[in-house]
Amino acid sequence: MGEPLTGVTRVLLDTDLAMGAPGSDIDDGLALALALADPGLRVELVTTVGGNSDVATSTRLTRDLLEVLGRGDIEVVEGAPAGDDAAEEIARRLLAEPGELTVVAIGPLTNVARALASDARVAAAAREIVVMGGVFLEQTNVAAMPGEYNFWCDPDAAQAVLTAGAAVRLVGLDVTRQVRLTRADARALAAGGEFGRIAATHTEAWIDYQARTKPGDELEHDSCALHDPLAVAVVTRPDLVTWQDAHVAVETAGRVARGVAIADLLRWEHPPAPNCRIATRVDVAAFTALFTERMAALP
C-alpha cells in the first residue's frame, strides 16, 4: 500500500492505452506519461480495458511504456473483456483504504462499473472517480457513433458508474476537443528523451491517419486532441476547467443514440439530484503550458 504522502493524490489509472498500435489514438500514452510527471500524483496501479485496442495489446503496450518511462515497478492488471482481474483489484484496493484512492478512468468504463457492482461499499470507498467520457453541451455529429467513444463502447457501464453513488467528475469532448497537439508540438517532443521521441513518432502517425480517414474535418489534419491528458491534469489542477453540477444519464439501448449522455444542468424548477460534475470550459493556454512543461521533464 505504501505510506500516504502529504499533498499527493494517490491514483488507480484505468486505460485502453494504444500508443504504438497502428491506426490507434495516442492520447492514453501521453496521459500515462503526464500522470507520472505530475508531482501531485502517485500512480499506484494501472488497469487495462479493451477500447482503442484489444485488452491484451493495451496491457503489453502499457507495460512497455512504463519501462520507457522508468516506472516498470508499477503493477499492471489486465481487465475486461478478457476477465475481472482489474475490477477485483480496483475494488480490493478501494475497500482496503476507504477515502484514500482516486480512480482515473480514461477508457471504456467496464472495469470501473464491475468494481462498483462487486460490493455496495466500493462507491463510497473511492475518494473520487475522474472520467474522460461523454459530451454534454454539444454532440459528436457522427451518426455511426452518436455517443462519445468511451461511453459508446460500453454505455451500460457508463450509466452504472453514474448511478452507483460515487463522487464523479466527467471531462468530455466539450473541453477535450479544444486542447490540441500539433505536428510542431510533436517535433518539440522529439527533441526530448526516449519517451518524447517515441511519442512524437506515434503522434505524427496518428495525425496522418486522421487526415486520411476524416477528410472533412480540417482540425484533425494538423493536430490531434489531448482528451485523456486533460482528464489526468484536472485531478490536481481542477482550476484548468470550469465545473458544473449536473445529473447525467446515458442512453444504453437507443437505436440512434447509443452512448449519448443527457446532462440536466439543474436549471428548471424541481431538478433531479446532481450525480456528478461536468467540465464545461477549459483554459487552453494554461493546460498547454502545463502539458509542455511536464513533457519536457520526462526521461
Automatic annotation (TrEMBL):
The Inosine/uridine-preferring nucleoside hydrolase domain covers 11-288
Q: Which domain of life is it from?
A: Bacteria
GO CC annotation terms, alphabetical: cytosol
Q: Which UniProt keywords apply?
A: Glycosidase, Hydrolase
> InterPro entries under this entry?
Inosine/uridine_hydrolase_dom (IPR001910), IUNH (IPR023186), Ribo_hydro-like (IPR036452)
Keyword Hydrolase on entry: yes
* GO molecular function terms attached to this record: purine nucleosidase activity
User: Which one GO biological process term can you cite for this protein?
Assistant: purine nucleoside catabolic process
Could you tell me which PANTHER family the record lists for this protein? INOSINE-URIDINE PREFERRING NUCLEOSIDE HYDROLASE, URIDINE NUCLEOSIDASE
Q: What is this protein called?
A: Nucleoside hydrolase
